[in-house]
Every structure is written in structure tokens, then in C-alpha cells.
Amino acid sequence: MKDSYDILNAGCKFHGDGNSFGYCRESTISTATKDIDQLACQLMEKLNERSTAMANGGQFQLALRDAEAIQFIYPSSSLGYLRAGTIYQQQGRQKEAVAIYQEGLVNVPSSDACYTSLQMQQADASNAANKRIDFISRLPLELVASGILPLVFHRCKLEADVPCPYLYVSRTWRQRILNCNNLSFRLNYGPMNSTLQFRELERFAPHVKKLRMDARRAVSYEDPLLIFGDFHFLNLTHFNLNYAGYEDYIITSALRSVQHSLTHLKLYTEKNYTLGIDLDRVLDDCPNLVSLDLATWTILHLTVQHPKLTHLTLQIGIDPLPKDKMINVLSHLPSLVFLDLFLLRDHRFVTALSVYCPKMKILRCIDEVSSGHDSYDERVDGLQKLYFGAQCDDEPYDAHGVVIQILLEHKHSLDHVTLAGSITDASGGFDGPVMDSTFQFDRLQELVVDARNEELVKLALSIIHRSPHLCTITMDHLTATDDGVCNAVKRLPNLRMITAYQMPPDAPSFQDLLIHHAQLGMGSSLKELNVTFEVDSQRFPWISALAELQTLEKLVLSTWHISAASTYLSILGIFGKVCPSLTSLDLDFWDCTIPDGSVTQIKHHPTLQRLCINASSISDSDLISLLSFPSLKHVIIIPTIKGYLLNLLQTRISRVEQRHP
Length: 661
Prior knowledge:
The chain is of the alpha/beta class. Strand 12, helix 18 (454-465) and strand 13 (472-475) form a beta-alpha-beta unit. Helix 2 runs parallel beside helix 4. The longest helix has 37 residues, at 20-56. The model has no long low-confidence stretch (mean pLDDT 86). TPR repeats lie at residues 78-111.
């Protein structure tokens, strides 16, 4: 039982000493006790009324707090337990209701007028908790397939040797689930004695839609790829294989066994073990592929058209890959809409892209691994998203022959452009089109620049001047500290988000940009700001300007190194009561420990509703400070914290997430 103080019965424990003075004391205590009884009863009555109203309005957490207050005031009364149990039952939380009713039956005397109600409510909640509805058997199969199973198996990768409980509820459940042919299995490399280790995968192989495998060939282990000769994958559409130590014919044999159904393939290996399978061979063995993600060190000429393939990702180990080979690849893939070429250095082929791949929407030629396929608008002709360059390459790319040419060709369709690295002299690149005063990037909304030389900064400036619809811009420190760029960004009427990386303490151009939006007051369009910086003992003048932004709703402060904790605390102290529209704040410390007192510096912010803390550790005192925020509703904590502190936060804040790094 929770610690409590029985206010109503406290006066009964006093015993007078029998003399006149004792009698007077006893009379005073008795009178005071009666008054307290009356006030306490009135308070409990009002708490019960308020709790009922809040629960009926869906404010269950607040309603529970009032119910707990009643229990604290009078722990031997049934009122608080009945109120809390009713709230739990309103939410369908029958087990919690049973528990609170049981607590009441222990603490409340049987003489209580509502003791029988406690017993009846507990029985009712217990029956409800034990009730099971076989919804999968009763609902239409179409609804089960489209609505229920995606929720049940959301991001669920079944293990090859671990039974899935949903498949063993009943025969009806199993059959309904299997009829959807939508199972997703994961098979990890390990010391397996025989394929009996794959009994679950074997049993349900005909109904597996997605399979992810790590396969390393070793003499002492059973070869996991043998399953493709023994099992029958009749509906496998997505196959992700990371392999090493196999000859090509073993891999291609496995692929041919599922070629009739396979539409999405990811095939990765390491050069130390094997050179990878040639693109031509993979496409020939899997003629129904729609999406292919392939790591290879051999690119031979294609000889057959593959019109079904729309998405191609190549991690290419050949350096350089001749232009004629890339032209050959493109000429045999007429339906491509997505092309991702990782680690490719020769980009001259892009000038022929629209000739051979007229449906292309997304082109990635950048040394950055893609997190997935971007969305695009099928109604818009031309390239919509361009990712170009290399952060780690010292050799500049051809500005006029490649970069500017593709930008000009798709100026009416591009909505996202990422440029990285360095380029050759870009001066005069837009001179021809500029003669037409209407020349602009009609749909460009997002620009990302990671410049390694001034020429790329100049090109970025030219793009900004011609992009009136830009609403999101990401800049490295070289770009964000350029006077011309910051002045051009000031004139963007629809700018909603700025991201600036590796910002130095002294950045007057960036500071002027923030001051400009601060002076606009509520007329500023800026809603989100993401800044990465290193904290040392120096002052950050632009922080003060940032704090004056009236329309800023979301702020992300990231730092990879803190050498002066006091400086960081002073930075956070500025945000205590400023940024009146701020509702979301992310404090990202990467692998750093959050300086003690950081949360305390901002705990009085009046409008902050969401706070995310990503650090290697956080002090208990800062965690306790989270309880002091007046409007905080959602907290995300990345470092692992003590269980009792997590429970405390979850009882006081509507939504608390403990995430792992």
C-alpha cells in the first residue's frame, strides 16, 4: 500500500491525562478533529466529482491523480479505490482495476457501506479481464489482411527457430494469417548443427513474403543457403542477403529457385571474401525484379532489356567505372525511376540520363548511404530529387559539364537538391538562362549544401536566388557563414526550417540572419531550427539572437564536444523564458554526458511540450527537474535511467519514452 496518513482517524489516537488542563486540550482536539473530518469529507466529495468529470472527458491521468488523493486522505475508505477502479475500467485496463479493487479490499474494513461494491466491481473487472474475443475468426478476411495483421506484425521479423505465438492460437488463426502470405522472417548466421534449426521457417516457407539472411560459409557450420533447395518459398517477394565465402553459382542457384515471385532483392557481400555477382547475371536470373540493391566489383555489358526494374542501388567497387559502361546499363533499364550509385566517381553519364531513362525521378550520386526510397510525384515529369557529390573527395567535380547541366535540364521539376564536396569554377554557369528574367527553379523546396570549397558555395547562392519556393535549407559552416548566402536566405518568403552544421562561436552572417527573423516578430515564417556546434569557453553571440525568435516552434541543439560545461549551461539559461512559440526541444549530446543542471536551466519554459535528451548519461537531479515544466507532455530519454525514476516520470508526465541508443 502507498504511504498515507489517515487524517480522519488521527484525532482518535489522542488520550487525555484526566486533569482540567488535559480536559481542555482534549476538547480542543476533539473540536478540531470534527472540523477536519467535515473539511476532509467535503474535499473528498469534490475530488470525486472532479475525477468523475475528468474521466468522462478522457483526461484519465488527471482523474487518477484525484482518485489517489482520496486514497491518501482516507486510506480506509472505499471511495478512492472505487473511483480509481472505475477509471481503469473506462480505459479497458481490467487488470489494473482488479489490482486496485484488491488493494481496497485489504485496506477497507468490511463494515464500510461500499465494501460489497468493491467485491462486486472486482469480480466484474476480473470477468472482463478473462474475456477473449476471437476477432480474427469473425471479421472478413479482407479486413483482417489489411487492418489487423499489419498491426500485429508491425516491424515483426519472425525468427527461423522461434515459434510465433500468433501462429499457435488456433487452427483458424493460423489459417487466416497464412492465407495472407505476408510473413517476414529473419535468419542470422550462427553455429547451426542442421537445418532442423530452421523448423519454423520450413513449416511456413510457402507463406513467407520477406526473408532476411546473413550467410557465412564455413566448414564447421551447416550451410544456411541449403534451405533454398529443401524449402518451398512460393510467395517470397523480398529477399535481403548479406553473404561471404560463396561461389557465384551457389548464390545464383538460390536466386533462381525463387525467381518466379522475387520482386525486391538486396544482395551485399565484402570484397575480402568475394567480388560479388555481376549485375547482368542477377537481372537474368531474377527477371521479375522491380527493385535491386547490389554490391558488386564487376560490371559487364547488359545485352537484354529489363523493363520491370524501377529502383536500382549499386555499391560499386570499381574505380573508375567508365562512362560507356554506365550508359550501357542505363540503356537497358528504361523504366528506372530511382538510381543510387554509391562511391561512383565518374558522373559524366548523367547528361544522358533523360535520354535512356525518361521516367527517372530520383538520382543519388553521393557517398552517403540512403535510408530508403524517397517519395515522388508521379504526375510531374522530370527529375525531382538530386543528391550529388562526395563529402570525403578532394578532387572537384565538373561544374559546367555535369552539375550545372543537370540542374538546368530539370529546373522545372526538382523539389530537392543535395550538393556535397567541391566543384570546379562555376562562374557564369547560369548566364544563358538568366537572360530570361523568369528563369527559376519552379518547384525547389529543399536545398542541402555541404561545401568543401568556395565554388560550391557560389553555386548554392545562385540556386537560392532562383528558388522562391524554398522552405527548408541545410548548410555547412562554410555556407552558413557566407554573407551572400545569408542575405539571400533572408529574402526567402516561405522559409520554415534552417539546419546549420558545425557552427563556430563567432558567425556574424548567421547571427544577422537570425536577427532578421527576430525583428520580423510574428511575421517571420521560420518555425524550425537545427544547429550543431562545439561548446568551448567562448561566447556564442548568435545564441542570443536565436532566443529572440518569436515564431520558432521546434529547436534542435546538437553538440559533439563540451569543454566548458558552464558555457553550455549559460546557453540553455537563455532559453528559460524566451522563444514564446517553442513547443519542441531536442538536446543532442551524441556520446557526451549532459552537463549537470542542464534541464534545470530550462524547466520554467512556459510553452515547451516535448523534450528529447540524447546523451551518454544524465543526472538524477536533472531527471527530477523534468517534473517542474509547466506544459511538458512528451519526454524522450535516450540514456538508460533508473527504473524507479522512469516510473516516477511516467506517473507525472503524459508520455515518457525510454529509447536505447
